[in-house]
Specification:
The complex is a heterodimer of chains A (about 325) and B (about 450). Chain A is built from 14 helices and no strands. In chain A, helix 2 packs across helix 14, helix 3 runs parallel beside helix 7 and helix 3 crosses helix 11. Chain B has two domains: about 180 residues, D-Maltodextrin-Binding Protein, domain 2; about 220 residues, 3-Layer(aba) Sandwich (D-Maltodextrin-Binding Protein, domain 2). In chain B, the strands form three sheets. In chain B, strands 1, 2, 3, 6, 10, 11 and 12 form a seven-stranded mixed beta sheet that branches. In chain B, helix 9 packs across helix 19 and helix 15 packs across helix 16. Classes of the chains: A mainly alpha (about 325), B alpha/beta (about 450).
Chain lengths: ~325, ~450
Amino acid sequence: MRYPNPSATTRATLPATRDETDNRERRRRRELGLVLFVAPTVVFLVVFVLYPLLYNLWLSLTNARLLGTTPEFVGLENYLRLFTSSTFSRYLWNTVVWTVVSVALQMVVGLGLALLINRKNLAFGTALRTFLLIPYVVPAVALALVTKWVMNGDYGIVATGLQAMGLIDHRQSPLALPAYAMAVVILVNVWRSYPFPMLIYWAALKGIDAELYEAASVDGAGWWKSFWYITLPALKNTTIVLLVLRIVWTATYFDLIWMITGGGPAGSTTHLPIMIYQASFGTFQTGYAAAISVILGLILVAGVVFYVRQSLATNNTTR
Amino acid sequence: MKRCVRILVAFLMMASLAACTGTSSDSSANPKKLVIWTNLTADAQAKVLQKQFDEVAHEMGIEVEMVTVSFSDMYTKLATAVQSGEVPDIMHTNFSGAAYLQAQDMIAPVDDVIDGLGRDDFISTYLHVLGKDGKTWGVPDWALHNSVWYRKDLFAKKGLQVPKTWDEFEAVAKALNTDTDKDGKTDLYGFAVPMHAVQVAAQTYYEMLYSEGVYTLDPQTGDYSFGNQKEQAVKALDYMIKLYKESSPPSSTEWSWNEYRNALVEGTVAMTLDMGAVVGLAEANNPDMVKNLGSFEFPGPDGTKTASLGSGYTFVASNQGGDAKVELRKEFLKRLYTPERAAERALSRPMFAFPSMYSALKIYRQDPSVAAFQTEIDSITNAFEHSNWYWYGMEPGLNQLSSQIESTTFFGEAIQGVALGTRTSADAVGYIDQQLQEQIANIGK
């Protein structure tokens, strides 16, 4: 039996130990580097997302006011008050209508226009694409003022047009009628927001393999079948992401609707963000406002989670 | 080298942090600088204020920065300013804004300024509105008074007299409805009933409530009163909606100040409740209309009017920053109140703003811009001096409830609901009562 020469072993292990130490040092430095790279993001998220979120949750359990006294813990009092309020269910319904109809129309218009600008040999393609992006850069305040102007019952071009068609009374404004007011703010919002889904869909359409369409064409599929069986399934994940983003953005969108109708007439366009604003800066009850925002947040999270899970489940079944 | 770079970076970071702590509107570090906020964003008014502030600053050898804060943003900005303890040195705001700041303990009483200027020279009701706990919390600048502004030429043409009761008023409003082009549709409406949710609906309704003797708070005791007068409040609301349906443009449920004032000046309504701003608007946009305009008091139900709606603007001084700074602010205010300056400020919006000092009122009356309205000035100043005039929620004096009414929309929502047929008057009044009580409890917390 041969035993290793101790001196040879020592010679062999010594350099290995140095290497390990060097490796460890390198790994440690690399990890430190990674931590340093990630740290700003983590700090940002903690300071600007996690802390406000937890603070808001805490505020919702207190009687905090924007001014004056130190907040006291009141348990679920704000939530009870909200659920027993005579207006909450109505404003919640307004939020649902505003969000669902706005998002659905944005997506349909956005997809339609994305299909249009994705066409090969489109005449004035660049000019058309630029033109279609204009609504996205129009400031909300300018849009609100123009909307109020064209809807004025005395001289607004839209209002007088509707009057001439007999759809509304003489010298009536659509913004003064509950059913029309919600429709107007939704349409204005769709006009302003469709470029975002249009751009995202356009980018996604570029990623679909052209050979699929050629193969379908060879098999005799027309435009509709190609759209239904190739384009739409290929856009499914894009649609999920877009829907989640648009639902969250629309449900919490405040300024446009506030500037056009102020929540009126008779509260018919008041949605939860306006309710939050009124609670914060109208009556200065920040605790109550925080409770409304928590409920709005929970509804959004629940809705989005439900939607994503359903979509993914459908994805798995169809595979 | 590396060390030098690190030190340099650290220095730059600290310097930028230090730079972030000071803002251009912060006067606390500079004992010779005053920051003044005003809600008057109209060009003519803002220019006069800026000119006078510069003059007084020059006289005193100090620096002044004027910041215009639009009325619609006022409560939001004030709330954040109060929260951060950085309220302006002086604020030129309406009486509700003063009530709000007083409730936050952010302003100093100014009785010494008023006494120094001569208390007797001030119209006493102006001082009453700004009083609380035996002190006066603002130096009244000017006040406005709600009246019915109407087309004298149309009254003459139709042989109508100034109405003295609610029934007469309703009949006159109906009689003024005119189909000018004979197409079967009304082109000129008798009386605008504006109901925009933000403030305007409440202002229109309160004129009817006050004329009938319904108050939010009892003017004598300060106790909550509206809840005990709901029957009368329903009657006033029914009357207001009746006027809307019979003689106001359908879209006036969404009308704010601009819309109803323009309608009178452009000749599409014959009467409207207003604080006289229609005169300045007509002078600027339709000078031919000025001679046709006149005003009268909105009548009481049976001819006896209890009170009317009115408010005004005041200068308030912050109590922050030590005695020397408070004294500097008060000295600045004193110098702003020469009769000429007070009259000039009110005349920057003729017939809308009426100066708080008799000496200034004398100069005001002689100005060419109001020469044609001597009868109206007599009537309005008489109302200021002798009638009861209140601002919602401030019937007994300064009260934060007023700012809560202004910064919320529950009045508008309830009133619009009745106009649109989605609520009954009783339901709307019940809702307003519940909301008012909630606000009062909220203030008390």
